[in-house]
Amino acid sequence: MRPTEQHLVPVRPALFDAFPCPRCGATDVHAEGTFFPGIHILGRYGCASCGAKFLRDLPVGFANDHPLAIMEEDGKVIHGPEAPSWLVHPFTEHAGRISEDPVRIERIIHREVRTAIVLNTLDFLYGHVLLKIYNAQHYLDHHPEHGLVMIVPRMFAWLVPRTCAEVWVVDLGLGRSRTWYRAMDDFVQAQLGRFDTVLLGRAYSHPDFAKVDIERFTGVAPFAHAHMPDRPLHVTFVARTDRIWTTTRLSKFLYRAMGRLFGRRAAQGPFHALQERAIRRSIRRIRRKEPDATFSIVGLAPSGRSSMGVEDLRTLHMDERMEKVWCAAYARSHVVVGVHGSNMLLPTAHAGACVEILPHDREENIVQDISVRVADRRQLFLYRFLDEFAKPRDIARVVHAIHVHYAQFHRNHVGNIF
């Protein structure tokens, strides 16, 4: 069956089958069922021309662009030439070994529905899960005739919008999510029969952030850009311990060399101290320009020292309360500062602007981790990217410029135009 709506994939009563056979290329493929082992949602198919039997990704998540298939007769995995290795290797590793481990899944029903859109947000990377969750708003707003059913890891359950029809909360950590679980499929198959119609949300990896109302997910209203000029500057630093801000080529070389020789954790200690010094120097330089500025520091790390005007919110123990404390800090912030990564998605969804330190080996991923809140020319003004060897003086200069020049930029490029 072909999709009747671009952003939905049919599952029940008729399963999507609008693609050629991966072995012979014939188009007379017939659907035989579905398989929901975890991250991947697959259809079971047969080819009337060559007789092949295979499982193939349904076009959701990264399979929108890179669908993978596995032939039942020999277990061969078939994929396009552009499919990334980080997607192919886990699929190949786990496709032939279905885990019999139990998986606890909690079903939360807010209202009973007969037609459902199932949005699967499971993934093995934090940012991927969060980006898929953002898709919920589109289906809630544009398809109110269907009930939205979200499949989420437990650590993300706090982000599920309250207007969803159901939530299937899966007790799997990110590290265990690559595995294919028979228990997961058994649970989903038992639920699908409750609905007359089942469609899949596409779970796009890069939704239009400017359309996302983050308060519907976190319960925290974002920074209002109207207050950018008239409030004393507040800046939040997002301090990662697994991707360090190295201000020189030598420190980056030593950090990576120590990581290879002694393990990443052994290398983090001394270089975490260097990053801490860079953050404190940035704060001092910003204060020279704006004495009334205040600051927050967040990150999965031992809490440091809080001082006058600097609130240290780092912790090693995250829970829903702490997630919201961090979001509140972002929402007070004119600017958030941090190294590129999924750690920047929620900060930029709430803050007024950002300064991101972009490692050279992440340049192809630029903007993927930024929840760009505006759709006009302010995108170029509010979202700044600095070289991975940026110095504290560079951070201070750009943060200050965003704060003091925003009103003029807004007047010239947003206010005084047709």
Q: What labels describe this entry?
A:
single chain; 418 residues; alpha/beta; Rossmann fold; 3 domains; 6-stranded parallel sheet
Give the secondary structure arrangement, pairings included.
Elements: E1 8-12, E2 29-35, E3 42-47, E4 53-57, E5 69-71, E6 77-78, H1 85-95, E7 105-109, E8 115-120, H2 126-134, H3 136-142, E9 147-153, E10 166-170, H4 182-192, E11 197-201, H5 215-218, E12 234-238, H6 249-262, H7 264-289, E13 294-298, E14 310-312, H8 320-331, E15 335-339, H9 345-350, E16 353-358, H10 378-382, E17 383-387, H11 392-415
Parallel strand pairs: 8-9, 8-11, 9-10, 12-13, 12-15, 13-14, 15-16, 16-17
Antiparallel strand pairs: 1-11, 2-3, 3-4, 4-5, 5-6, 7-10
Helix pairs in contact: 6-7, 7-11
Describe this structure in words.
- With 418 residues, the protein is of the alpha/beta class.
- The protein folds into 3 domains: 15-95, no CATH class; 105-210, no CATH class; 215-415, Rossmann fold (3-Layer(aba) Sandwich), CATH 3.40.50.
- Helices cover 31% and strands 20% of the residues.
- The protein has a 6-stranded mixed beta sheet with strand order 1-11-8-9-10-7, with helices on both faces. Strands 14-13-12-15-16-17 form a 6-stranded parallel beta sheet, with helices on both faces. It has a 5-stranded antiparallel beta sheet with strand order 2-3-4-5-6, with helices on one face.
- Strand 16, helix 10 (378-382) and strand 17 form a beta-alpha-beta unit.
- Helix 6 (249-262) packs antiparallel against helix 7 and helix 7 (264-289) crosses helix 11.
- 38% of the residues are buried.
- The model has no long low-confidence stretch (mean pLDDT 93).
